[in-house]
Specification:
The termini are far apart. Helix 8 runs parallel beside helix 9. This protein has 440 residues and is an alpha/beta fold.
Amino acid sequence: MADAAPRAVRPTTVRIARIGADGDGIAETDDGGTLYVPFALPGELVSAVPGAKRGEGRAAALEALTEPSAERVSPPCQHFGACGGCSVQHWADAPYIAWKSGLLAAALRRAGYPDAPVAQAARTPPGARRRMDLALRRVPGGVAAGLHRAGSDAVIDLAECPVLHPALFRLIAPLRALLARLRALRRAGSAVVNLRDGDGADLLLRFDAEPDIDDRNRLIEFARAHALPRLSVAVGQGAPETVCALRPATLTLAGVPVSPPAGAFLQASREGEAALTAAVLAGLPETLPPRARIAELYAGIGTFTFAMAARARVAAFEADPAAIGALRTAANRAGLAGRIEPACRDLARQPLSAKELAGFAAVVLDPPRAGAPAQMPAIAEAKPPTVVYVSCNPATLARDAAVLRAAGYGASAATPVDQFLWSARLESVAVFRLPRKGGR
């Protein structure tokens, strides 16, 4: 006897209680379950279809709005709802930014800091994103270039993007036409584009095949036609190779010119970088003795290094040899070799010991989304007077800050930075200090 056909899941009507950390509406069902409903807002009565298990609840698809919220607005992008880049374009600005700030406050509460002072959020406007990571997929008739569909490997071929800097978006159409002619893109690849300071777009293309001589000639023509300072290619996860370098691809950090490697990480917007740097500098001790030293962990190409070097000597640690090499070269050229001590070190596999951290006036760390679980115990044991933590993930910030709380640190400042507009991602800077001896 054949198995019976699976029963269709019937929609259920729920009231959205709040927005979760991933930007989904969260609702409780009559039987005590939890539904996570994308594109729903607090207070809305919605019809949703429960789906796959997600944590202790279930993901759900929004079927209909029975009672829309007064906070619902028209999203500015035609791709909203399909593109996985933005999750809350449909939310009015005031409640949206309050929610973003609340993510930081909630993370600090979970870490044991219920009264941490959270500053007003620093904002990044539309059209300011200076870095884009595009998925590339060969499709019938050409190439799709854009972001992945939410929860899928499918690529949304971007026709607009209100988040991207206009200079970056203007590059997508001609890039799409170029890629359609290249043999090196057989099925899928990616494009990482960083907008340099008034110097054009630094482009890294990753292919799934080796570019031949015709491909290389077309790439060089493209770089010249669009005044790109540099165009690099890589196959799979291999090392980038420069195909065309018309001029140095430089970025200025605290007045110091830096030549980052192709595809290097940089803060997504100049406004976001400025806000994060200002919060880091404000978090350092007000007075530092002449020979004071700061330990900077996960330094990258020097986003904060050069600004902090004006206040004290900086020992900068970074796992990526190319990034730390760019930092070292820039420091030497700027005459800062005595102020900045770069070191290549993978802090996940070889964290600094408490002994190595002893004597630093402050520790500044900017870890990846996974946080710094291997490094935090040594920081707590070394007990530097000040720890400045730059976070791109409230969940790992909460976990790592709890280690500092157990070591006796208090939270003296916290600044949310809305650098990833209309998404659930939040950048922040949290400052932790040990109580002064003989005082609170």
